[in-house]
Specification:
The protein is mainly alpha-helical. Among the domains are: 94 residues, no CATH class; 88 residues, no CATH class; 151 residues, no CATH class. It has 36 helices and four strands. Strand 3 and strand 4 form a beta hairpin. Helix 13 runs parallel beside helix 15. The protein is flat and about 125 Å long. 26% of the residues are buried.
Amino acid sequence: MPPKSLMVENFICKSCLSALRKRTPAAQWAIRHSSSQSSQATTSTPSSRLSHEKDAERRKTLEALGLLKKSKDGKVSVNYFEQGTGGRLRRLQGEDEFGQSLMDPDGEAENRLKQLEEELEQATQFTKIVEDMWGKEGAEKLRKRVALQDTHRDESSIKPTVLLPNEAWPRPQDRLHIFQLNNMIRTIGWKVNYGSVNAKRINGLWKYYFAARKALSKKWELVHADIWDLLWQILAADSEHNPNRMSHVHILAKDMEEAGVVLRHDQQLLAIESIFVSVSKEEAITAHRKLVTTLGADPEAFVDFWQLGLRMYCLIGELARAERIANILIDSPYDKDPRFLLPFIRLCTENPATVEKGFELYQRLRSALGDSITINDYDLVISYFLTSNETEYAFNIFVEMMTSNTVNVHGSFKIPASVASPFFYGKWLKRLIAAGDLRGAYDVLLYMKSRGVRPQAIVVNGLIGAWLRTGMAENIRKAEEVAWAMINSRLQFIVIRKDMHSLANWVRLRPFGEGWPTANLETFSLLAENYKDRGMHNKMEELWGAIREAEIDPDSFMLNQLIFSYLKDGQGKLVASISRDLIAKYQIEPDSWTFLALWQALPINRLVQIPPGQLPQEVLRTRSLFADLVKSAHIFTTTGLDVQVARYVLHSFRKLEDKFGLLLAYRALRHIFHFNPPDIVVLELHVGSMDLEKTGKGKNGHRLMHTGNQIEGHLRRRHGELIASGQISPEDDLPEEVKREELSNFLDTFLENQVYMFETEDTEQCLVQAAMEMGFHGGVPRFKATPEIGE
């Protein structure tokens, strides 16, 4: 019977159609031909018998429907019908037409084939365009990139992206730009779904859109609304990944207006802001005025519209107009964040005539915010007043912030003692220094002194250090002025203390001056480090004279700054004597930096060449310095010896060709200071150079390569020995600690071979002599060639 639904086009019952689809080619062929041919089918198996029975039953069904007739010659003929979309039945010519109808019910196969051919032809043409512009390699890279993006795209979870029609632009260059833009839109559309649009994607989208603008301007009507929405969503996003946001918005909004797109309220306001930032302030204000009767009266856009106008007028300094807009917002019934007053407060603080109004607006803001006011709000308003040199207003706000608005000192002549204290001001100074507001911190210092409050030295030192770290000439000048004012205050204190000994007990002397705190060791250290870094040795000597007069004992840091200053000034020959005298006088304990300066100050490390007659004296000097280092070994028990110090120690002996001293120094560094040299130091000592890069480019480059091969061979051999002994498994690499130890053993063997290469009768005697001169009173250090793992 015919189906009830018109959606089925072939007028054959479901059971017959199912059987036709499931039948094997042989069975289909049998049912389409005579019954005699069908009877020839084999019936030897159960499956064939079952198939024959189904065919017979199906023929009965077709006969009952009038669809199966027998011809005169006994052959079976089947009539095929097709139901069209209008419900009419059409008889098919035969089984060939029935097969075509069955495979292509809609008759669209030919049209789809033509469409595929056209797309293939377009792809071929585009490939030729790309090859003409970028060559075959460029075209291949583009195909791979597109294929890679397609493989990573999950089409089932991505919202379909509307693209520009590629065939609408006849010029090859335009088609290329449209293709690139489509590809980026497709990629961005996929990224947006997962929220992972970074700066690279945003810049790429802008790059391809800007390249395609010329072509798009000819046919704006082809740009779908979804494309404009996507472009705006990405290019107008307020994100750290979009630093060129305003310039993007300005051009995009202009293109959308040319295309006839109606901008939303928020888009119009952002477009005006982009004009103000990127193009012209006057043009933006004019555009804003034109929308007063529309957006300015729209309840949905009212607050945003007038807040934008307030910000623009405040930035250009139009106080009267800004005040009118502020009053409009204040009087409006719409919900708004009271922080819209912040730009207007800043504008008021810039003029002494309106600074009081700015403070009143702050109080109004504080009242409106209530408990929701934050520390950042206070800091922002305080910075406005400090920038305008209105420190007293800033102090009043800081007091309210620190006391939760329980103490009001505005207009008061007498300030509570809890507020007028160095400790309270110190909190403010620390906040300003930490925030980087050094100018504001300096103004607070001056304000403190004007109120008769002497700041703490530790806080002023913090400001001096912050000034010096900026490296700016003006800040360095201020730092020196304040630091030397503190030094003078200390010197004045020393003079008063001495004079007090010769006066009666009831007589008291008070310091006079600008009220700066007295300098301490930190103040001197800050200046010393700065003078050393800047190479101002004359200032350094003046500073050391002042620290002696101030009767402040220097520490190792101050000592290091002084001797490095001498070294930097080309007076390295004085370093040893100065450091020795100061260490003895002030009982200073040297550190790694002290010994680094002493080893760098040796003539062998300062001079290009040592006269041959002075070599024995320099060898003795170097051994004596190493003996001093051994005496100070307890200093390095916790921190360890610095690698650079050990490096200069070893290379000093190498340059002097003191093979005995070099071997003993190396073994002492290992056993006394627990120093294992890094691979770079092993290479340097083996090759005999402190500049491996220069050595590798010179004539001795082969030595560097040969040494590297020797080290690798030694490590491979030891690795095999440890595997053979069962200490590590074959699949494990050489442990890092074992590798360091083996490198140390390799260098020790090399240095020992250098000593015993030309062994004479007095070799052992020379070693003993060197050991005594280097401070090894217990004998010559030895070492074990191949220590076991874990030792």
